[in-house]
Amino acid sequence: MLVSAVTLGCALLLGQVEGGPPAEVTPVEVAPAEVAPPIIQPPAVPLPFQDSERPALCLELPPTPNVPSGQWRAQCSHEQRRCLITPRRELDVDGQETERFLERVRPCVPEEAAPVPNEELRTYRLEPSIADAPPGWYRDERGRVMQFNFDLHRRVWLGGAWSPLWPGDEAREDRVRLDFGIALELAARKRLHRLHFLETELSLGEPSIDFSLLRYDFSVERDEPLFRITTFFGEPRRYDVSINLGVWLETLRVEDLERGEARGGFLTWGTLHATLDLWHSRDLVSYVRVRAGPSAERDYENGISTLVPGAALEGNLTLDRDGFHHLRFGMEAEKVLLSRAVEGRPLRPERLRLSAGYELILLAINDQPLSLVADARGVWRNDIAFLPERWEWSASAGLRFSLWAPARRSAPIAEKARD
Q: Per its UniProt entry, which superkingdom is the organism in (predicted)?
């Protein structure tokens, strides 16, 4: 029995050796785990705005039916793992992506410069939003940008108005007025410089022209008060009184007019007035002031050079934050001196002018405002030979188109436009 058991064991051992190596095991291929596509959240109502103070990343996402390019702008909070995203192109009325890229946006930061890989950003919470816009500009849900804030103190304008005239008992209702001008403002520390070029008013019907080549003035806010007034009714209180003096200059002004058989023509070589702001706004744009000083004038109808001192009270007020409402008024008096005698008029003629006007922006065409202008004026003068001494009244109503009018320096960002 023992011999038989040993023989059987050896036979089994030799059989395993002679059988060769074990059969190869075919490896089983394991499919890689699929990465879930990014999920864009349903849009909030209203859509949030991206922050104009923060950069935006260029984010590439898989194509969607509405944004087949997959190109987005994203502002991300890595702590919250959240991104505000918006398409890099404008959308049409059906919400489909167009070929027109967003206007007035800063370039987005390339994907390579992002602090985290694009693949990781796709795992963040992606929330639809509206791209940022510059101050004074608003962007709608389709990504289109539009200007909502206008500075009518910095513009080029062209306008026309119906302007009937009442020189006496009879009215001239066939009179129209055309106007043109260029206005600029330059802001410095606590000082605002104003420049006006080529201001022109041309009246047809009862013909006249009023043209000014250049006018300059400035407003200033003094650091040191001229007077310090202290009251002692109860707790002592101090009141600072500043005298904000400035300068008003005008050169090469032409006034030419006809009233029946009478005609006047005046060329002002230059005017120098001192100004005193009775009140001005914090940004110095709106003001009420008085000014006074002399002018050197040429009466070219009579060949006389004269000195004309004058004084005025005037105001220019912007009544709202976005520059849609403007009110102007003025009262001016002038007296002609150093003139020789001219038949049909006094030796020292005088002029009185009253005016008040209102301008309201109605709409914008290509982001340039179209405004309604209405004003009333009164003039009394005896400096034109054989012209009756009487008040001459006029009123006007018309439209004015600004060919260029940027946003105001105090314009808010787009998100505040909803307020």
A: Bacteria
**Which residue from 12, 149, 132 is spatially nearest to 74, judged by alpha carbons?**
132
| pLDDT band, residue 167 (cuts 50/70/90) | confident
Return the number of other C-beta atoms located less than 10 Å from residue 189's C-beta.
7
The answer regarding whether domain 155-418 maps to CATH 2.40.160.40 reads yes
Neighbours of 355 (CB within 10 A): 16
Domain positions in the chain: 57-147, 155-418
At residue 33's C-alpha, the angle toward residues 30 and 34, to 5°, is: 130
Of 150, 160, 153, the residue nearest 321 (C-alpha): 150
Tokens of 163: 């302007």
- Burial degree of 293 (CB within 10 A; 0-12, 13-18, 19+): middle
Number of H helices, E strands in the chain: 2, 23
Pairwise CA distance, residues 256 & 403, whole Å: 27
Phi, psi of 193 (to 5 degrees): -100, 135
**Region of residue 4 (phi > 0: left; psi between -120 and 50: alpha; otherwise: beta):** alpha
- Closest by CA position to 259, among listed 344, 356, 179: 344
Whole-number Cα distances in Å, 137 to 46, 231, 314, 408: 18, 47, 32, 11
The CA-atom distances, in angstroms, between 15 and each of 8, 192, 265, 353 are 11, 109, 134, 130
Q: Tell me how far the alpha carbon of residue 265 is from its chain's centroid.
A: 38
**Phi/psi of residue 392, each to 5°?**
-120, 120
What span, in angstroms and rounded, lies between the C-alpha atoms of 243 and 29? Answer: 90
3-state class (DSSP) for residue 221: coil
Chain centroid, CA 382 distance in Å: 43
Token pair belonging to 398: 């018309």
Residue 56 in tokens: 């935006």
| Whole-structure pTM value | 0.84
Tens digits of residue pLDDT in 102-152? 999 999 988 777 778 778 888 899 999 999 999 999 999 999 999 999 999
